[in-house]
Structures are given as C-alpha cells and as structure tokens.
Write a sequence for this structure.
C-alpha cells in the first residue's frame, strides 16, 4: 500500500540520487562552454530551479482553486507547502542569478525580464506568507491564502509581459541567457530538471505531511482541553 | 433592477459618510502632496531634468495615497460590524464588491484630481491634459478593483494597514509600469497612438483583474 | 476548531426560546449560522421550511438579527442608516417605515443626529429598529442586553413582548438568567458546544433553573 511516508521516503531517495547525478552531469560530464567557461555551469541549477519554482506556484494555484471549491483543508496544506517551497526556490534563482551576473558581467543585477519577474513573484508570495502568519482563524487563513495565490499566479504572465516590454525600451547592455545547447549539455540540463522536479515532489510530500500532522495535533489538543 | 438599485444605495452610503467626515479625501490629499514634495527634493538634488522622473513620481504618489484610501475605506466596514450587517441583507456579495470598488475608485480619482495642479506647479510639468486623464482613469481602475479585494482581506488580519501595500504593490507591478510608461510617453509628445501598447496592457490588466476580483470577493467575505 | 457539535434544535412558529450558556459555549456561533453569516461544516439548517444553503436570499428576508454590534455607520444619522437597510431589504415606502420604526424605539427626535452622538443604549435601540424594519418573521438576538442601560433594556423588552404577541418567532442567547426567563416560553442550555438542556419555562422557577444551569455548566448533568 502506498502510504504517504513510504511515498515520501521513495521520493527523497530518488531525488537524492538524481541530485547526485545532476551534480556529476553539470560539473563533470557537460562540456565547458566556449564563451563563459566553467562559470556557465551554474546554468544547470539556475534554470531548472526557476522552472520548478514556477511549477510550485502552479501547484499552489491549482490547490487554491481546489480549496475554494471543496473547502477541504488538505488543499490548503498543499497550497501553503507549495508556496513555501516555491519561495525558497525563487530565492535560489535570485541568488544564483546574482552570482552569475556578478561573475560574468561584474554587476550584481541585470534587469533581465525573467529574473525581474522572479523578483516580483518573490515579493508576491512573500506577501502570501505574511498574510498567512497574520491570520489566526484557520478557515479564514486558508480562504485568504487561496484568493491571493490565485491572484498572484494569474498575474505572472502579465508581469512578465510588462517587464519584457519595459526592458526593450531601456535595453540592458548584457543579454542574460541565450545559450545554444549541444546534445551533451542538453542531457545534463534534462537530468538537472528531473532532479529538481523530484526534489520538489519530495519536499511537497514532506511539507504537506507536516501540515496534516500539525492539524491533527491541534485537533487533539483542543479535544483534550 | 434591484441589484443596481442596491449597489447604488451602497455607493451613496460611502459618499454620504465621506461627505460628512471628509476623512479619506483629506488624508489621501495631504499624503499625496507630501510624497510629491519629498520626491521633488529627493530628485532635485541629483537629477538634472526633474521632468524625466515626473511620471514615476506621479504614480508613486497615486499608488501610496491609494493604499491609504483603500485601508480607510475597508476599515470603516469593520467598525461596529457594518460589513456583517450588510451581509445579513438579501444582497448579492458581488454588489458589495462593485459598490466598494466604485466608491474607492471615485475617492482615488478625486484625490488624484486635486493633486494634479499641485504636481504641475512643483514639477514644472503640465499634467492637466485630457489624454493623461485617460491613462489615470485606466490605472486607477485596476488599483481600485484589486485594491478593494486585497484590502478587504488585509483589514481583517493582525497586521491590518501594514499588509495592504505588501499585497497590492507587487501584484500591481504591470499596471504601474504601464501607467508610468504611458504617462511618460504622453508627456514626451507621443500622443495616445504612440502609447497604444501600454494602454492595451493597462486595459488588459483592468479587464482581467476586475473580473477576477469580482469573482473572488465572495470567498473573502463569506465564512 | 469545533464550536458546536450535535445541536439538534427545533423551533415552532411563535416560539420564544432563550439559550443560556457560559462564554465560549457556542452561542454566538449558533446565531451566526442561523443568521446565514457562517456555514456549518456539517448538518442542515431549515428556516421557514427553506434550506439556508439553497434559498439564502429568501431566508435573509425572514430573519432580523440583533447583536452586541450595532451594524450602524457611526457617521451617518439614524435615519440614513435605516434608509440604507430599508433599501437593501426592499422595504416598501421606506421613508415612512423608517420614521415609524424610529418612533417605536422612541428615537424620533434624534433621527437626524449622527449615530456617533447617541449613547450606547440609544445606538442599540436604533439597531433594534434596523432589525425589525423589514418585519421579519424570526428574530435572532445574540446577547442583546449586553451593555444596555435601563431605558434601552426596557425598550428592548417592550419590542420583544410585542413580537411575541404578534406571533413572531424569537431565539435569544444570553448569560443573564433573569432577563431570559421572564420573556421566553422555552429555555435551553448550551455548554461546551452541546445543547445540554431544552424545555419549557412554564413551572420553572428562577432558583430551580439556576441550580440546573450550575449543574450543567459544572459538568454534573446534561
């Protein structure tokens, strides 16, 4: 029988292995890029993490709709787990982006549309976390969070469009990425992608499981009181 | 139609309260002036051409004053359980949203209108023009709609007033970019045709978020 | 968090039930659910034969609610507040009805004063007028006597007696034992989210009820 614990352990194990593979692929297997050299390898982490952050926020979006429709707490648990993890991943995107910019072009920030969109996303979901910590009533917290997660995610394409347009009028000197991928590089990238997706799944299961446990503890505590 | 009559009754209620206290408009106006003056000082010292920062300064003033107004407007419904009183009535929740958003839009536009002449004087840029009015209307509409939804949540939390700017401003980034760019374009003489792209983005944002806020409001107010 | 559990309550038309209970017993939650302000996580609520979940708007016309919150806009006058509610409830001839309602709570002369300038007792009287403006068949009152001066309390009692005479159904919650017993036909005790007792007031002395109440609340019965 597939219990949550078992699924969690399997996912954790798989993602661990996949991550090791990804690290090997990114740092050893993939050929060194011509123009940027070894520095370019950060790409194998930066881009997958960005995509997986987006996936996480997408999961939160769907879970939020699920909660508003069904009012079942597990959807809320999934949504808030997804946002927390997504926020961590978004932070990593920003950090690796800054490292890359600094090393490659001697500037801490480029107004690259994807990076800037991630920054705005980071702010939107930081708001989500602050909203949650500011509401005591569970039902209300879940509803408010769901509404905000839906608003935030629908906003993503609009934010991206606006920033991209804005950027073409004030062109930034450096192009952020437009790397032509050789087959070997593509393989490395795919492995990294899979590794981070597995990591997301493992973290989600663990975090959502924690949320469910916490809820049960709270329920029992109230019964005893 | 009963729905429209009731929505109008609610809007009239907000207008009546404001007429009696003038609280919201006063606060918004004074705050906008303060922001404009401070930005003027801040930029004058470093930037040669203050005109270049005028569009941004204008929308910063509008956005922050708007947040103040939204907070006041929704906080008022919390006192004495007024919002709950409205919810007891045989009334569509969407009517409450439309009425609140419309009233908020009205107050935001009102305070903006009063600030414009002052802005013209302080920044030496004529912002009293019809084409700019269109941009201001579109921009404020989006802020009022999403702002009403988010403020309805924010005033019910522990963090209260502080939370609304944190929620509203990141979400409004596309609107603020488009509004500032369109304003700048118009001031530079591009004409409405020249800023058509930004106007489309504004219109798109408005359509999307007015609809979304309309739908989601019920989940915010119903227990 | 479970505020109410297994509450099975039936009220016939014209009944007057007062629910007693200590703080945190779930009285407010019960009123809020009946007032359609809150959805129960389980169970059904039928008011006037209508399912609250399905015919919410119709149910809202049938009920009037009085709470310790006034639901009034402080900066508007009593008359303006009532006119708003008259419009929201589609009350015919709103201006006349509002005038009548204010006279009934003896606040006619203060009709054009902002609610802010009225005393707490007067504000509650306006709120009561608001609750009965649309002539509801059912009146729900959540600890209405809280913070009322004698004048306002007398006014409220008068209105409740009138409602009872006219065959309206009343459900009132309170933790004041005297007030409730005098007016109601039936009493109930809500404790820890459960309906521990429910029965007629006829033949029940204040002392007997008090001791029953203490028993329930201290866990000896119910």
């Amino acid at each position: 029988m597939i219990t949550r614990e078992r699924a969690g352990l399997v996912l954790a194990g798989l993602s661990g292995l996949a991550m090791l593979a990804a690290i090997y692929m990114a740092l050893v297997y993939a050929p060194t890029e011509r123009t940027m050299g070894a520095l370019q390898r950060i790409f194998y982490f930066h881009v997958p993490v960005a995509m997986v952050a987006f996936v996480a926020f997408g999961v939160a979006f769907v879970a939020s709709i699920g909660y508003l429709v069904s009012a079942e707490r597990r959807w809320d648990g999934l949504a808030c787990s997804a946002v927390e993890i997504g926020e961590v991943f978004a932070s990593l995107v920003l950090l690796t982006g800054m490292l890359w910019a600094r090393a490659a072009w001697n500037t801490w920030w480029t107004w690259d549309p994807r990076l800037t969109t991630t920054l705005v996303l980071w702010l939107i979901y930081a708001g989500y976390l602050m909203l949650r910590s500011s509401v005591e009533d569970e039902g209300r917290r879940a509803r408010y969070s769901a509404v905000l997660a839906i608003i935030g995610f629908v906003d993503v394409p609009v934010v991206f469009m606006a920033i991209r347009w804005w950027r073409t009028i004030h062109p930034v000197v450096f192009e952020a990425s437009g790397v032509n991928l050789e087959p070997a590089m593509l393989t490395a990238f795919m492995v990294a992608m899979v590794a981070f997706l597995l990591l997301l799944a493992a973290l989600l299961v663990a975090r959502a499981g924690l949320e469910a446990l916490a809820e049960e503890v709270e329920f029992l505590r109230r019964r005893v009181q | 139609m009963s729905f429209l009559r009731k929505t109008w009754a609610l809007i009239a209620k907000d207008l009546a309260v404001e007429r009696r206290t003038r609280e919201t408009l006063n606060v918004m106006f004074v705050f906008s002036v303060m922001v404009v003056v401070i930005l003027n000082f801040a930029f004058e010292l470093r930037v040669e051409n203050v005109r270049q920062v005028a569009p941004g300064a204008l929308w910063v003033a509008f956005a922050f004053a708007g947040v103040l107004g939204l907070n006041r407007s929704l906080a008022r419904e919390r006192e004495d359980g007024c919002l709950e009183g409205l919810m007891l009535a045989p009334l569509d929740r969407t009517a409450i949203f439309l009425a609140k958003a419309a009233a908020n839009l009205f107050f935001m536009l009102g305070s903006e209108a009063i600030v414009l002449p002052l802005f013209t004087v302080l920044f030496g840029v004529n912002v009293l023009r019809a084409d700019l009015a269109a941009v201001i209307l579109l921009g404020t509409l989006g802020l009022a709609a999403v702002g009403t939804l988010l403020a309805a949540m924010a005033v019910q939390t522990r963090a209260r007033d502080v939370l609304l700017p944190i929620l509203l401003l990141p979400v409004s980034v596309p609107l603020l970019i488009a509004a500032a760019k369109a304003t700048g374009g118009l001031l530079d003489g591009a004409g409405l045709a020249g800023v058509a792209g930004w106007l489309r983005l504004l219109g798109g944002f408005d359509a999307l978020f007015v609809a979304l806020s309309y739908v989601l409001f019920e989940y915010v107010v119903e227990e | 968090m479970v505020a109410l559990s297994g509450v099975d309550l039936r009220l016939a038309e014209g009944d007057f039930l007062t629910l007693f209970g200590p703080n945190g017993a779930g009285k407010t939650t019960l009123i809020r659910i009946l007032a359609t302000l809150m959805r129960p996580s389980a169970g059904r609520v039928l008011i006037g034969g209508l399912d609250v979940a399905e015919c919410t708007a119709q149910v809202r016309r049938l009920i009037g609610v009085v709470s310790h919150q006034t639901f009034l806009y402080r900066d508007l006058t009593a008359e303006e507040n009532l006119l708003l509610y008259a419009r929201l409830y589609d009350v015919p001839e709103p201006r006349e009805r509002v005038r009548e309602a204010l006279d009934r709570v003896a606040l006619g002369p203060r009709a054009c004063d902002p609610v802010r300038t009225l005393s707490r007792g007067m504000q509650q009287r306006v709120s009561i007028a608001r609750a009965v403006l649309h002539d509801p068949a059912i009146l729900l009152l959540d600890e209405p006597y809280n913070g009322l001066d004698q004048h306002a309390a007398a006014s409220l009692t008068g209105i409740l007696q009138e409602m009872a005479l006219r065959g309206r159904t009343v459900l009132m919650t309170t933790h004041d034992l005297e007030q409730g017993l005098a007016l109601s036909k039936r009493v109930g005790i809500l404790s820890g989210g459960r309906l521990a007792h429910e029965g007629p007031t006829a033949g029940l002395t204040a002392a007997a009820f008090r001791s029953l109440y203490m028993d329930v609340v201290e866990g000896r019965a119910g």
User: Anything to note?
Assistant: The mean pLDDT of chain B is 92. Chain B touches chain C at residues 2, 5-6, 9-10, 13, 16-17, 20-21, 76, 79-82, 84-91, 222-223 (CB under 8 Å). Chain B is about 85% helix and 0% strand.
